[in-house]
TrEMBL record:
It is found in: Endomembrane system. PANTHER family: POLYPHOSPHOINOSITIDE PHOSPHATASE. The keyword Hydrolase applies. Its main location: membrane. It comes from Coemansia thaxteri. InterPro entries: Fig4-like, SAC_dom. Keywords: Hydrolase, Membrane. The keyword Nucleus does not apply. It comes from the Eukaryota. Residues 153-521 form the SAC domain. This is Phosphatidylinositol-3,5-bisphosphate 5-phosphatase.
Length: 527
């Protein structure tokens, strides 16, 4: 499936994390520095060009001198700016989100305040706490339409579950970042960059210039917890990345679009580390060689068919309608092609919707989805076919004879055995000995990193309550294997009454509530 992005967004070659903005009637000057204030960059913006721009881009005004300045050099430059009549407009800006143009002039969108929420490999991940919009034009004439446009733009509350990191690419998984570390040019995963359009508003100038000065913002959920085990601290980090493509709220965004992107598409990554070393890098070794990091990724997304629910009536459960029945399931094929590209194979579909109903609602989708997967699998080679598991979770919960948690654990173990998970180091020799003594897997000691190949794709109708319950159990089972891989436990099993299981359950519950508020407008109901 071709990329939705019009332009690839390259990661900056120089990391800037603090900005001061100076102004005069004719120019804005942005001075950016790194965290330790060891080097500085200077960006000039022509205010006349910004106010005269006729199109929707904000590019003719931007000029970078291309020099990394020292502290002494930048102090001399700032002194010259102040002597020429410039004044300090705003200091200690945390980041630049990009540029936006409404009916007149251009504006810079800024991160004014931030809060650290996680530390990965020595890189902080921040939550946006406050933003600011600054006009590039000097004292622009503001029309009523312009004011309304600005107010509408500010209604997008970027202080609710938007995250970024200056030095770590949180648009990619840890496994992907490790694989890409040797690339001379690295690019963000643009489907998760929510300020993508703001960055691209300088597109008629070199886009690389905009990427050097802006940061990539993800929307979703980030949390980190510390667990003490046998005198060692274990850190569990959850990162949920919501796709910006075909994004929207429940009932307005359902199913799939023409390009194969689904509603409520969320990638969840579970990173577990003992942090013997904070950095991803081992001393005197290659970058990203720290063996104490593990990660597991799962996916949720709406059923990739053209379907909707009419909400104009008063029915508590609006009827489900399949709007278009495509005998070739083209859009579903595009969707799964994207999953193959992102995660590899196998892709395991865990469909949790109802299978038996008096009046068909959910089961209507289930039958069509099953038929579509059967059709698509005809064209996939053996070993690459989509694995489909349909389980009516609602019905199982009502049946006292069925242990829902036990069933989910069995499903999780089976899927994990198929996809594996990421471990950035060799197998522990003690684990190798346990395998051989158990008489099962007799393969030799693994000396290279372990990779996750494939993904579990979970869904119910909204991809909220049932999906989150299933993902939390899959996450618990994965956590046991991650802790075992790191040598924290003697077998890859966690009972529900352990601290580790309770912590991961609480983290997934908070994640689920956050995703539910973003997509459905309310908290989880059944988890």
């Amino acid at each position: 499936m071709s990329s939705h992005a019009e332009f690839p967004l390259r990661r900056p070659s120089v990391i800037l994390s603090s900005f001061d903005i100076y102004e005069s009637k004719s120019h804005l000057c942005i001075v950016g520095s790194n965290e330790s204030e060891g080097y500085y960059r200077l960006l000039r913006l022509t205010r006349a060009a910004a106010s005269a721009a006729a199109d929707d881009k904000c590019s003719s005004m931007v000029e970078d001198d291309g020099v990394c300045h020292s502290r002494v050099s930048i102090q001399q430059l700032v002194a010259k700016l102040l002597a020429s009549g410039m004044r300090l407009l705003v200091a200690n800006v945390c980041g630049i989100l990009g540029f936006v143009r409404f009916t007149k002039g251009c504006y810079i969108s800024l991160v004014a305040r931030r809060r650290p929420v996680a530390l990965l490999g020595g890189h902080y991940i921040y939550h946006v706490e406050d933003t600011r919009l600054i006009s590039v034009a000097y004292r622009p004439e503001r029309s009523e339409v312009e004011d309304r446009s600005i107010a509408t733009f500010k209604n997008v509350d970027l202080t609710k579950n938007f995250y970024y990191s200056h030095s770590y690419d949180i648009t990619h998984t840890l496994q992907k970042n490790v694989a890409l570390h040797h690339e001379p040019e690295r690019y963000y995963h643009s489907m998760f960059v929510w300020n993508y359009q703001l960055i691209c508003n300088t597109a008629s100038a070199p886009l690389a210039l905009a990427c050097e000065w802006t940061l990539a913002l993800i929307h979703g959920y980030v949390d980190q917890s510390k667990l003490s085990m046998f005198g060692r601290d274990v850190y569990i980090t959850l990162i949920a990345r919501r796709s910006r493509i075909f994004a929207g709220v429940r009932y307005l965004k359902r199913g799939v679009n023409d390009a194969g992107y689904v509603a409520n598409d969320v990638e969840t990554e579970q990173i577990v580390t003992t942090m013997e070393l904070t950095s991803f890098d081992m001393p005197y070794n290659r970058p990203f060689s720290n063996p104490y990091y593990t990660a597991y990724v799962q996916h949720r997304g709406s059923i990739p068919l053209f379907w909707s629910q009419e909400t104009s009536g008063i029915a508590p459960k609006p009827p489900i309608e399949i709007n278009v029945r495509d005998p070739y399931f083209v859009e579903a094929a595009r969707h799964f092609d994207s999953l193959f590209h992102r995660y590899g194979t196998p892709v395991i579909v865990l469909n949790l919707i109802k299978t038996k109903e008096r009046a068909k609602r959910e089961s209507l989708l289930g039958e069509e989805f099953s038929e579509g997967l059967h059709y698509l699998n005809q064209f996939l080679p053996r070993g690459k076919k989509i694995r489909y598991l349909a389980w009516d979770m609602s019905r199982a919960k009502k049946n006292r004879q069925e242990d829902v948690l036990a069933i989910l654990e069995v499903i999780a173990e089976e899927t994990l055995s198929l996809t594996g998970f990421f471990h950035n180091g060799p197998e522990l020799y003690s684990n190798h000995l346990r395998r051989h003594r158990a008489g099962g897997d007799q393969s030799p000691l693994r000396t290279t990193p372990r990779l996750q190949t494939g993904v579990v794709r979970s869904n119910c109708i909204d991809c909220l309550d049932r999906t989150n319950a299933a993902q939390s159990i899959v996450g618990k089972v994965a956590l046991a294997h991650q802790l075992y891989e790191l040598g924290q436990i003697s077998e890859p099993l966690l009972s529900f009454n352990t601290d580790a299981a309770m912590i991961i359950e609480e983290m997934y519950h908070d994640l689920g509530n956050t995703i539910a508020l973003q997509y459905g407008g309310s908290h989880l109901v059944n988890t």
